[in-house]
Every structure is written in structure tokens, then in C-alpha cells.
Amino acid sequence: MRLGIIADTHGLLRSEVFDVFAAVDHILHAGDLGKPEILIELEALAPVTAVYGNTDGPELRARLPQVAEVELDGFAIVVTHGDQFGHPTPAALHGAFPRAEIIVYGHTHKPLLEIVDRTVTVMNPGGAGHPRFGIPPSVGIMELEAGIPPRGRVVVLTG
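Above: the chain's sequence. Below: its structure in C-alpha cell form.
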């Protein structure tokens, strides 16, 4: 199973995301969507599991949870924006969600892919919207296959 991982769109869904996510089976959005239309556009590509972020307004907060738990291809996955942890770290997220095998978060706009405790994969795809903090926009791709650790990568968006 191939996952498209995205966060911090802040109302901007770049056309390049459609190319990168063309062959994904499921999309995880870790919050700060910016507007509900982002969900509709992503759902045209694949099923979406999304959470609200700290800048999302009442309409998205009414539709989305702060934390989503989903099982995909046998992996227990948690998706959260992460702002409830201040400046989230992989260790803090693992401590908060000890049963998760994969944790996806956003908020920092800084891409990160890290293994915690030898078994838990933590990914922040970076911010997919407007560039912030001098970091180019990016998304993530993660491959899931039963019996082996997830394989992930960050894809920088150039367009």
C-alpha cells in the first residue's frame, strides 16, 4: 500500500501534489488544511484521513478530529497536527501514542522521517503550502508492506 502524506497546506494545494500522489492508495493530512475544498480535491485521488490543525477554522474543526487513528495494511497509524505538544518531537509523540506503529504529524513545516524505539516510524512531510522558514514545500510518500518496516521518503515540491 502506498500512502500520500501531507500537512500544512494552508489553503494551497499545489498542482504538483496531484502528480506525486497519482498512485497512492490512501492520503493522510496532518492538519492546517486552510479550507474544506482541500479535502474534496484530495478525495478525488484516494480516501483521506485528516485532522484539523491550530489554524483551521470552525468548519474544519466540526468535520475533523484533532487526532485520527486508522489501521492500514495491518499498521496502527496515528495522525495529528501536533500543536497540542508545543514543538512536537518524535519521542514526545511516541510517548503520547505508545500503541502507534506509524505517527504522522505537521505543525513545524520541517520535514522529518525518523525511527523511534527501533519500531515506530514518525514522519512530518513538511509544509505543502506556501514556503515558510526558508524551507521549500514538501510532501511524503510511505510504502507499507506487511511484515517489513514502512519505507518513507520526503518529496520536495518545486512548482
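The chain has a mean pLDDT of 95.
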